[in-house]
């Protein structure tokens, strides 16, 4: 029997639909003592599985699940002194809890198509109604975390089976946003 392909706990047992009227919630890190808490006002968008090596994954998961929300909607409300930026040179300034390692919020501050957005992991919240994962991004990148290339057909098949489209970069709307930004910078943008 072929080995079962595990993607992420929020996907493996069936994707739970989000709520259109969801008003937001609080992310809590994995620490038992003095957990970091981050409140998000309102719903997230572009929630997706990410196979890249940089996004935070829970133990045993091959993919992370990460979404974006306007940075203005993100508020560190408790124990923010435990946070540190993982890589200050990265586009996404991932603020991780120094004790448990969970990435609590990742703003994009630099001049970029995603400037003003923050990347967050809604699985760190017990609130119900967050947008469900919509697609899988950077699927080929799981090879960089040690997944055998021989497993990629099975991984992509499983992603499709759970109802997501696998992409090796971002989804078409996000890639279009990046290209629109580049075209605007280059002066080649047309309405
Ligand atoms: N193949 C690379 C891809 C890394 C990458 O480009 N990740 C995307 C998706 S999260 C990104 O936008 N990264 C920006 C950043 O890490 O700041 C890896 O797996 O490390
Ligand atoms: Zn923690
Ligand atoms: Zn990623």
Summary?
With 191 residues, the chain is an alpha+beta fold. It is 15% helix and 24% strand.
Task: Describe what this molecule looks like in 3D.
By secondary structure, this protein is an alpha+beta fold. The chain has one domain (9-186): glutathione-dependent formaldehyde- activating enzyme (gfa). Helices cover 15% and strands 24% of the residues. The chain has helices at residues 9-12, 152-161, 172-186, and strands spanning 24-28, 37-41, 45-50, 64-70, 74-78, 83-85, 95-97, 103-107, 117-120, 136-137. The strands form two sheets. It has a seven-stranded mixed β-sheet with strand order 6-7-8-9-4-3-10, with no helix packed on it. The protein has a three-stranded antiparallel β-sheet with strand order 1-2-5, with no helix packed on it. Strand 7 and strand 8 (103-107) form a beta hairpin. The termini are far apart. Bound molecules: glutathione and zinc ion (ZN) (2 copies). The site of glutathione has 11 residues, from loops. Its EC number is 4.4.1.22. It catalyses: S-(hydroxymethyl)glutathione = glutathione + formaldehyde.
Mean pLDDT: 97
CATH superfamily: glutathione-dependent formaldehyde- activating enzyme (gfa)
- Give the number of helices: 3
Strand content bin: 15-25%
Strand runs, count: 10
CATH architecture: Alpha-Beta Complex
| Coarse structural class | alpha+beta
Percent range of helical residues:
10-25%
**What compounds sit in this structure?**
glutathione, zinc ion
Which overall shape is indicated by the principal axes computed on the Cα atoms?
globular
The H/E string reads: HEEEEEEEEEEHH
Low-confidence residue ranges: none
Query: Which topology does CATH recognise?
Result: glutathione-dependent formaldehyde- activating enzyme (gfa)
Radius of gyration: 17 Å
List the quaternary state of the chains: single chain
Number of domain units: 1
């Amino acid at each position: 029997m072929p080995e079962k392909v595990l993607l992420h706990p929020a996907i493996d047992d069936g994707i739970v639909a989000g709520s259109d009227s969801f008003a937001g919630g609080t992310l809590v890190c994995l620490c038992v003592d003095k957990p970091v808490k981050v409140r998000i006002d309102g719903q997230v968008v572009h929630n997706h599985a990410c196979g890249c090596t940089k996004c935070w994954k829970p133990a045993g998961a091959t993919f992370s699940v990460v979404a974006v929300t306007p940075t203005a909607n993100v508020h560190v409300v408790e124990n923010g002194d435990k946070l540190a930026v993982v890589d200050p040179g990265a586009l996404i300034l991932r603020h991780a809890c120094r004790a448990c390692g969970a990435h609590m919020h990742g703003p994009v501050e630099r001049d970029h198509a995603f400037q003003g957005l923050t990347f967050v992991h809604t699985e760190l919240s017990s609130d119900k109604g967050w947008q469900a994962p919509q697609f899988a991004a950077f699927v080929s990148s799981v090879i960089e975390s040690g997944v055998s290339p021989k497993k990629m057909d099975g991984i992509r098949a499983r992603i499709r089976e759970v109802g997501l489209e696998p992409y090796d970069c971002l989804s078409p709307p996000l890639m279009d946003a990046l290209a629109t930004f580049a075209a605007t910078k280059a002066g080649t943008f047309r309405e």
